[in-house]
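Notes from hallway chat w/ T.B., transcribed later so I don't forget. T.B. wanted the structure written out for a chain they're using in a teaching module, and asked if we could keep both sequence and structure tokens in one place. Agreed to drop them here.
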Amino acid sequence: MGLVAGAVLLFGLGCTALPVGSGGVDGPVIYSGESPFGGGEDAQISGVITLEGECLYLSSLDDPALRYPVVWPRGTQWQEDPPGVVLPDGHVAVVGDVATGSGGYHHPEDVESRADADGAELADRCADGPSREVAIFNPGSDVNLELLPFEDPRLFGLCEDMIADFAEGEPGASSTEEEAVAEFVDANWVLRGLVVEDGKIYHLGEQVGTYDIITLPEDTLAVESAEWCYPVE
């Protein structure tokens, strides 16, 4: 049983005019200002919070290459350690959490009217992918959080055996132990802070399991029979 989580799909919508507001930038966080209009957009914004350099994204759980810079609801602030955002209601969403709320998807130039010029410039630098769209939460949107497996206290103390056969003799299979470990980490990319080395598996600095390296057909290698044990609370 692999650990790769189910897909959270992000869909871009066509651009429409945004209400004028005055927000700003706090670290990598772009936040909106007070909207002079009621209501908001109806699209669902959802994805895993990821950080790359100065850019804070919501990324699809199914495809990490599908990601959007974010304009967070007004009142959102950046937290340095551990990296994450402090939401207007006081809850903290750290890198690796899944965030969901209402809003829409727009081009970077539309960010200035919702946040400010600095926010628009940051969004433009961070936007990538074919659409170059930005996920914009409604100014007063509630952001719901979903903890990823190793951060969910309900799972503390549980263990499960994982079978991870990533190579299986297919083209591009791992030819070295280092490549096999890299494949394992990449396949479970959603678990930010995952370290696999010297027969041990660590997540967010805690040892959570062990693993073996096996030889597959054609002398390829893979991580297999990895026992993952959730840390004790």
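Follow-up for T.B.: The chain has a mean pLDDT of 74. Might be a good example for the class.
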